[in-house]
Design brief:
The complex is a heterodimer of chains A (about 425) and B (about 280). Chain A is about 20% helix and about 40% strand. Chain A is α+β, with helices and mostly antiparallel strands and about 425 residues long. The model of chain A has no long low-confidence stretch (mean pLDDT about 90). Classes of the chains: A alpha+beta (about 425), B alpha+beta (about 280).
Chain lengths: ~425, ~280
């Protein structure tokens, strides 16, 4: 319902748009007439403005909503709220630098993130009426946007009570919880490795620090956009990090706004054992361990020849880039591992392939020469691997179609079947 | 995305009557009463028989602790046909293949496997497969039990309980199409399959009387040894007939009960099997 004070705001709005071509009483009567016929207020106002030959673009006041009522894709919405936080950021739009403001809005019903694409002179803790905002959705979260058509009026403090922002600090997060899009997380980790890299920001040299961190649930890459003086084996608590994925793998990012503190705590960094369905859901990771059966050994496995220039594997002695070249022999395995919950591509390099075959590259070359074919190595490999259960460790890469596990180690699984069966039986009886 | 190879026992697979027919580029699925939504499956068992049926079509049977899978390989599976022809029955085999159904009349559905890969394996591979399949089946039983408690069950609710989305989808289809699934029946099957891996495990609950159990086992083993010998001598290719074994055993001072007991134990241990009804063969 539209109450009286709101009604008068809409009347003002229409009056401005029709440029005083009608008197206030007239507009009020018109609007009531429309609203009594259950026409939505937005449509009613547009109708009246057109009727009086005004410009509907001049209409500014939308429907007022509470933050919790907002849905994705709303236009011309008014929000009375408190600015819980506001930050500045520079972005490049159409090759031009632009300063935007982002933060959190709050009212009695909740909080929502916002982005202001212009400077509206927003200050933390201001109570404001935002006119003509629009909403978008990003990863399931509704976001309020203040674009060109928006305007802001400052209101008295008592119109919105102070808002406690409980929103997004995800406390007690572990590496196993890392997912694309998580923001403002707090996590306790050990730095496994760290390297400094210099980049150029606005003509200034800036150091960024990236490497691997870990905890009891797994490992992940990280990038610190600020020098926190991180060193290998440091145990730290990071508050205010965010997750971005890189080729499917969730990675932790944190900048100067994050808090980094040293902690005294034993952290045993371990690889992460996951089912293939879980890994597929996350998108990938570092230090991953999979148990499964090899259900396919693909073409291109075994003894191959690589281009000496680009290391690509040759097709009938020809490199797709460098043409006919003298190939460099190598061993590799491309296969599919399946654990009954999902299937995953895997890649073994020379070392693991040699271990599986039980012979080295030189010996493989000799066998292939004797048999006049490299296929014999592929057959041997297929025979050794197919239907066998393996424990495979490594990191993943994701492309448009699939995830591939690049193995750092693989061993044939020795299971104590009797033990496992006995345990399960005891649980059932 | 490659279709997951489900681990299911023959009994669960053959009790499936619901199929989702695929299109030109879409996979077909056989949905079991426990919610395995199977396009591809991975089985390990004993290849017990094979025969040519029709032109270029080979029918093989692969037995596991719960029942028998039927495998059909034709001209489009030349490698599988070749392998099946090479392998002598009985032998432990692993089969990776696609699920198929055949419905000769309304209301009757037979499931079968169209092999992509056939490979001879060893007893260890079979045991690993059995225990793994038990684990997967138990998970499905849990999911179905949870779904039956919900009103109405939904994929989201199952996922929030920690079940994989893929499984949750299958379980929803199972509950919709099979109604009140008798999970208890599968629970018995599961226990049987686990006992198959643990000969003499009926005694698990009476562990304190260990001494007695061991002596009893010994006595049985002697009977069993004798019977294995008899089966081998009486077997002229198609297995030894039950009557002949019984006659011979009685000559050796064993009564019918003892013979039955020993034979059952040998079958449980996977040492002998019944290629056709009334005939026994050593694996």
């Amino acid at each position: 319902m539209v109450d009286d004070s709101e009604l008068s705001r809409h009347v003002d709005d229409v009056l401005r748009a029709v440029g005083n071509k009608a008197c206030r009483d007239e507009i009020e009567k018109e609007l009531e007439n429309y609203l009594n016929k259950k026409v939505p207020v937005e449509v009613a106002k547009q109708g009246i403005v057109k009727k009086y030959g005004g410009n509907i673009r001049e209409l500014r006041v939308g429907v007022q909503k509470k933050l919790e009522e907002l849905k994705s894709g709303e236009k011309n919405v008014d929000i009375l709220c408190r600015i819980v936080s506001v930050n500045k950021r520079t972005v490049i739009v159409d090759n031009q630098e632009k300063t935007i403001f982002y933060g959190i809005l709050g009212d009695q019903t909740g909080t929502k993130p916002f982005t202001a694409w212009d400077d509206f002179n927003l200050n933390k803790n201001d109570v404001t009426m935002i006119h003509n905002a629009y909403t978008t959705e990003y990863q399931g979260i509704i976001q309020v946007n203040l674009g060109k058509g928006a305007s802001v009026t400052k209101e008295s403090q008592d119109r919105v009570p102070s808002v406690e922002y409980k929103g997004a600090t995800i406390k007690g997060c572990t590496i196993a919880d890392f997912r694309e899009g998580l923001r403002n997380i707090s996590v306790e980790v050990k730095i496994v490795s760290v390297q400094e890299r210099k980049i150029n920001v606005k003509g200034m040299e800036k150091g960024i620090y990236s490497g691997v961190l870990g905890d009891e649930t797994g490992k992940a890459r990280f990038t610190a956009w600020h020098d926190f003086g991180l060193k290998e084996n440091d145990k730290i608590k990071i508050t205010g990090g965010y997750i971005k994925t890189n080729r499917g793998r969730p990675e932790l990012n944190f900048d100067e706004k994050a808090r980094v503190e040293k902690i005294e705590k034993e952290i045993n960094v371990t690889d992460r054992r996951v089912s293939i369905s879980e890994l597929t859901k996350i998108g990938g990771g570092l230090g991953i361990v999979i148990d499964g059966a090899i259900l396919d050994v693909k073409n291109g496995s075994g003894l191959i020849f690589r281009c000496p220039e680009c290391k690509r594997s040759l097709q009938k002695g020809v490199c797709v880039i460098h043409g006919k070249v003298e190939g460099v022999p190598d061993l590799r395995t491309k296969a599919v591992v399946d654990d009954g919950t999902g299937a995953l591509n895997i890649l073994f390099g020379r070392e693991i392939t040699e271990k599986i075959l039980g012979k080295n590259l030189e010996e493989c070359k000799k066998t292939a020469q004797e048999k006049m074919s490299t296929e014999t190595i592929t057959d041997e490999l297929t025979d050794k691997l197919l239907t066998k259960n393996l424990e495979i460790r490594g990191y993943t890469l994701k492309d448009d179609y699939d995830i591939t596990l690049i193995a750092s180690d693989a061993v044939f699984l020795k299971k104590n079947i009797k033990e496992e069966a006995k345990k399960m039986l005891e649980e059932l009886i | 995305m490659r279709e997951t190879a489900w681990r299911v026992f023959a009994e669960e697979f053959s009790s499936a009557t619901y199929e989702i027919k695929g299109g030109e580029k879409q996979a077909s699925y056989v949905v079991t009463p426990l919610g395995a939504k199977i396009s591809r499956l991975f089985i390990v068992g004993v290849l017990t028989e094979k025969e040519n049926v029709g032109e270029n079509m080979l029918r093989a049977r692969v037995s596991d602790p719960t029942g028998v899978f039927t495998v059909y390989a034709g001209q489009y599976q030349p490698l599988a046909v070749q392998k099946l022809n090479e392998i002598k029955t009985p032998a432990f085999v692993a089969v990776i293949g696609k699920s198929r159904t055949y419905s000769p009349e309304e209301g009757t559905v037979y499931t079968s496997v169209r092999p992509e890969i056939v490979k001879e394996v060893d007893a260890d591979a079979r045991d690993i497969w059995v225990v793994e399949t038990c684990r997967h089946m138990r998970r499905r039983m849990e999911a179905v039990s949870e779904a039956l408690k919900m009103n109405p069950p939904t994929i989201e609710k199952l996922v929030s309980l920690g079940f994989d989305r893929n499984l949750a989808e299958g379980v929803m289809l199972a509950v919709e199409n099979y109604g009140n699934v008798d999970v208890e029946k599968y629970s018995e099957m599961l226990i049987e399959a686990l006992r198959y891996l643990l000969p003499g495990s009926e005694e698990i609950e009476t562990l304190p009387q260990k001494q007695e159990v061991i002596t009893e086992e010994k006595k049985e083993t002697e009977d069993e040894k004798k019977l294995i010998e008899m089966i081998e001598t009486l077997d002229s290719g198609k297995g030894a007939s039950w009557e002949k074994i019984l006659t011979k055993a009685e000559e050796n001072g064993m009564d019918k009960n003892r013979v039955e007991e020993a034979i059952n134990s040998l079958m449980d241990k996977g040492i002998v099997y019944e290629p056709i009804l009334g005939r026994l063969k050593k694996i």
